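Appendix B, Record 12. Input sequence as logged:
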Amino acid sequence: MATAKPKASAGKGAGKTAGAKNRVSAKTAYQTLALETRNGVALLALARPDIHNAFDETSIAELTHALLAIDGDAAVRAVVILGHGKSFCAGADLNWMKKMAGYGREQNMADATALATMLKTLSRMTKPTIARVHGAAYGGGVGLVACCDIAIAAIEATFSLSEAKLGLIPATVGPYVVEAIGARAARRYFLTAERFDAAEAYRIGLVHDIVPVAALDERINELLGALLVAGPDAQAECKTLIRAIAHRPFDDAMIADTAQRIATVRASPEAREGVAAFLGKRVPAWVPPALRKK
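Logged structural output:
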């Protein structure tokens, strides 16, 4: 299915600045990716539609580079990961797999570490990330979905953790996928390597919402509108907080840690601005001009 690129309008009126590029997209010409920004949103596209945006060592290295560059750019407020053509990401490139078959132990470790590093980089970004999923999301493509903070899929999308069919295991994507769907669902889909549809992906928690493909960009733009009116430093702190408290005992150490976190954030310039804006019945300074009510 052909899909349009997200408009990243981030709400009513934001289209007035659509098409503006920032310094992230101008710095590097990628072979396997397309990167642009609109209204403070980075649109990072897997851009090898002829092979359904499958991974190889070049695309993995470029993704890592692009994610680090985006995360370091204060002008970018949110990131959308998408795929050009008929698929989001169909997993590993067959030619890359052929090369891997001849690798020794050291080459395999270096290759696997590069993939694991890319996934960790995406998962640990300080900015909010959204996966825009259409068509096929297989293998490492499921890993990308699980690494994003929010995942929205077209109803027509299909998913598979297909590694076991090849005598392999979903090792590097495993921590993120299990975090998203839980160990019980992982037992089924890791072991069977079967395909499942978007409704099942929603049921098991891999994606947050499913919509017709024609409504995919509209739904993502609604989320972007919500993300862009929240404080960027607070969002980064929220992501750190989640990692610090998830699946850990609710003990005295956690209570002390959470108290320290909020005490620190309350004294930050962003929090002071946010509270002052609320009390003064005005829009906080971090909200983009296109989203400010006239």
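The two ends are 39 Å apart (CA to CA).
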